[in-house]
Amino acid sequence: MDIQNLIEALKEHIGHLDGEKIEKIDFDRMQEDLKNSMDALSSLQRKEELCDKLLFDFKSEIKRMSLAMSRAQGDLSTSGMVERLLSSEDLDFDELILLREKVREDFNKSFPSRPQAKVIDKSGFGGFKISEFKAGVRE
């Protein structure tokens, strides 16, 4: 039984109980609906725990990228602002997605995955060696 049908069945049972219409109550059906409710609540609790873990991981990823950018730029105010936004109770999922995309875009600009320039090193024998330069990578 899906949750919406279960809600409707429980509303019906509550209506009979509130109106003290004992003769209209189908106790076998009520018992079945209560068992189904218990199963649905257990399933919802497991899903809630999973959602909480995923949301924590999602927010942690945004915080890590923001902190790395702030440290690289030497300005921690941006990271603090992002953390305040993430801890806000008013932040809905769509806004969270937009924030992640903005932070990810800025992060990728600050820490590109591909080399931004070529570096020419003078080798020991008078020749030149061209190597790729990547921020934060030592060879």
Distance between the termini: 61 Å
The order of strands across the largest sheet is 1-2
The number of helical runs is 4
Q: Name the helix and strand elements from N-terminus to C-terminus, one letter apiece.
A: HHHHEE
The overall pLDDT, averaged over residues, is 84
The low-confidence parts are none
Summarize the biggest pleated sheet: 2 strands, antiparallel
Radius of gyration: 29 Å
Helix content: 55-70%
Topology:
Elements: H1 3-18, H2 27-73, H3 77-87, H4 93-110, E1 117-122, E2 128-133
Antiparallel strand pairs: 1-2
Helix pairs in contact: 1-2, 2-3, 2-4
Offer a few descriptive terms.
139 residues, 66% helix
Fold and architecture overview:
- By secondary structure, the chain is mainly α.
- It has one domain.
- Helices cover 66% and strands 9% of the residues.
- A two-stranded antiparallel sheet has the order 1-2.
- Helix 1 (3-18) packs across helix 2, helix 2 (27-73) runs antiparallel to helix 3 and helix 2 packs parallel to helix 4 (93-110).
- The protein is rod-shaped.
- The model has no long low-confidence stretch (mean pLDDT 84).
In a few lines, what is going on in this structure?
The model has no long low-confidence stretch (mean pLDDT 84).
